[in-house]
Amino acid sequence: KVLAHDNLKEMARKPVLTELLLAAIDEAGIDALDNEADIYLNATNRLLIRNIDTQRTFTSTADKLYFLCELAWEMIRDGELRIHYKKIPERIRRCFGERIADERDLDHWDYDLRNQTLLHRNAAGYYEFAHKSLAEFFVALKFASELGVLDPKVLSTYREADNNQSVALERSLDIDRLGKAFGCFESRDERIQSSWGFLPYIIDRQKVQSRLTDIILQTRQLLGTDCGCLAGNALTLLQKFGLTTEAENEGFRSADLSYLPLRHAYFSPLRPVDLTDASLRGSDLTSAELGLAVLNGTDLRDTSCAGLRLKTWGTCYNRWSRGFKHVLGATWRIETAENTIPVVSLAWCGDGTLVAGAMDGTLRSWLNGDGDDQIHFVSPHGLIDLVASYHGSSAEMTCWSGTALAVWDLSADQQKSQVSVGQLSPLRSSFFSEDDKLFGPHETDGMAVIDIATGERLAILPCDTKVITSVACDWHTGNYVAGTLDGRLLIWKDGNCEPQPHFLKDGVAITALCLTEDAATVFAAGIRERENRFGLEVWCWDLVCGGVRWYWGSDTFSTQPFGEKINERIQMDYSVQSGKLAVTTGDPGSPLLIMESASGRILSKPRECPRVQAVAFNPTGTEVAVAHDEGAVSILSSDEGTTSFGTCLRILDVRLNARGAQIGGAKGLDESTHWFRQGKVVQGTRLEFLADCGAILDADQQRRLADLQANRAQSY
Fold first, then answer.
1. CB atoms within 10 A of CB 524
2. Beta carbons of 487 and 511 less than 8 angstroms apart
3. E strands within 228-310?
């Protein structure tokens, strides 16, 4: 039973944790243990209560927990995971001094806390926890308790012998004392990273927003003093786990975060933070990392920015692993490239406007696919996985981010509607916005057809969705197509519930599908493996008669090992107007192929591209937009009647959104950094980068910028 649960079997492989695991199962049952925090919570309660029930102790559960939390914190803080028995009385006096009358009383406390808690003694007289993770759990318990945000589940689990709640756990501390523990190390310090990993499961998210906001604002009086990382850590915890649904949609828009000691604050690069019109004036942002923050109109005047990182995920962001981790057992393989905003989805409107969904949660558009981008939308859920023209409109787009579908009006620059699409995977689903439909695999129920306007399920088609890697659909004909990991096409015709399987090639993951306008033909692309090398394959399948019309397979193979290349997702688009296909594996240096859809003939000389995230033909099929990780969208010619066919016509930059951000008087902007401009790396200072992103400089900064540019031009 234990090995059948993913959340338990890892612990079961560690003999030192077996007692904890069995105690947790005995206390709460297997089904109640959803994560490691649940295991430690129920196990420690069971073991402590067992000693009280057998009358082998006189100290309370609350006393033991307090002592264990303090001892664990000392061990983790100092890096010494054991303590000699001669030093324990001193620690007991420090924790319970007023309650200890004399030496005899201290001896009783000493014996009880050494022998009736969760500490183990070795032959040399040193006491330690059975496993380091126990100490890390108690540190997390200490943090949540002192912050005043412990989950009621924790409070109700720990009980005394008389079955009363162990109320002493809840003890909010003042700012000075909080700074000595919770603010001692930055949140990413390896000494407390594991403890931070427990926090999401033991905090009360209903309390977090108000309590942490209060703590952050109280630190304003400590600006300029050595208050550690308290405010920065509190802001980090608030951004990660503490915002309510309503507040999450607003992010930190217009928030007053001025004159705060926000050193080492860390905003996760996997989740954008909207700081539009927020005030950080005068705040200390030393060594802070703002990740995918939107700085549109943000007041950064007089801030301390030494070591400030505006880092976003760069050239090795892997979309496939995000969508298929549960299928392939893949892991995130990400490297960072500073100051780039990868585009992950593309669509063209009927009037020639190019729309892109970016990884920072913004929806960006270029009129006629040229010029500077307009920024319309900020999603609190992270990257915008898919975009599509809504009802073929030139002004409205459907955007998918997180678990929500939103219809966005580009002309009015506002959201019109939003619905939840639950457990569908955006990387394995297709829009059919002209009919308000969405088709994709539900994690548990099969292939689902969803009404975009209402979120209602219109149909469920039985299928093992874990093997589905791509989908395509035509609502008018009732034809649905799905590609699988093992090289099959699953075809549902005329609304039939049972699919017709057709093998294209065994062992080829079909990761991209496109349907022709009449739904008579489907184009399928996959990756084949040969002696640990990989190549692209494309098929044209006749949906009316069945069978392959044409096949194309590459003669060149990647030398990357199995396990890396298999995680790449093919990008493909079909142009109705020109009858062309654009296809690439998305691998760095992989060629972008423009093919004749009727025959599979390669029309253009293969052009190598950076890691491609999306491709899309314009409405006339004369241009193809290619989004890649270098913070840009390349526009290539796909018009055979021109001499520029197959070449890059222009590059559209996608930069950090810092338009209107005020940075006058900010310190630390002379540090060097790099960013992409027109597909090339630019080396410069942080001042130059922010100016390039639209920030507003004061007079002194403008002079410095002019001098920097003049000196650089002279050196060239």
1. 28
2. no
3. none
DSSP secondary structure string for all residues of 477-544: TTEEEEEETTSEEEEE-TT-SS-EEEES-TT-EEEEEEE-TTSSEEEEEEEEEETTEEEEEEEEEETT
Q: Which residue do the tokens 């006096």 mark?
A: 93
Distance CA 643, CA 209 (A): 59
Three-class secondary structure assignment of 372-431: CCEEEEECCCCCEEEEEEHHHCCCEEEEEECCEEEEEECCCCEEEEEEECCCECHHHCEE
Residue 179 to residue 190: CA distance in whole angstroms: 18
**Residue 50: burial class (beta carbons within 10 Å; 0-12, 13-18, 19+):** middle
State the Cα–Cα distance between residues 413 and 245, nearest whole angstrom: 22
CA dihedral of 268, 273, 277, 278, whole degrees rounded to 10: -50
Query: In 562-698, which ranges are continuous DSSP H helix?
Result: 686-692
Provide the angle, in degrees to the nearest 10, between the axes of the packed helices 18-28 and 36-53: 80
Residue 157 confidence (pLDDT):
83
Residue 67 structure tokens: 């002592």
638-697 residue pLDDT tens: 998 899 998 889 999 888 888 899 999 999 999 888 888 887 788 889 999 999 989 999
At how many degrees (to 10) do helices 36-53 and 61-78 cross?
130
What's the CA gap between 231 and 221, in Å, rounded?
Answer: 11
What are the structure tokens assigned to 556, written together?
């060149």
Side chain identity at 570, as an amino acid letter? I
Q: Is 50 exceeded by the pLDDT of residue 198?
A: yes
Cα gap 52→117, rounded to integer Å: 10
| Cα 565 to Cα 534: distance, rounded to the nearest angstrom | 7
Q: Which residues on adjacent β-strands are paired with residue 375?
A: 364
State yes or no: pLDDT of 379 exceeds 50. Answer: yes
Residue 40 CB contacts under 8 Å (≥ 6 apart), including other chains? 20, 24, 133, 134, 137, 198
Closest C-alpha to 627, from 610, 604, 649, 639: 610
Q: Return phi, psi of residue 669, to 5°.
A: -90, 5
**Is the predicted pLDDT of residue 305 greater than 60, yes or no?**
yes
> Which one-letter amino acid corresponds to residue 173?
L
Q: Are 46 and 26 in contact (CB under 8 A)?
A: yes
Residue 583 token pair: 């296809």
Whole-number Å distance between alpha carbons of 166 and 149: 15
Evaluate whether 459 touches 502 at the Cβ level (below 8 Å).
no
Structure tokens at 295: 């700085």
The pLDDT tens digits for 483-523 are: 888 888 988 886 667 788 888 887 788 888 998 888 889 99
Question: Cα 188 to the chain's mean position, in Å?
Answer: 16
Residue whose pair of structure tokens reads 């994709």 in the numeric block: 440
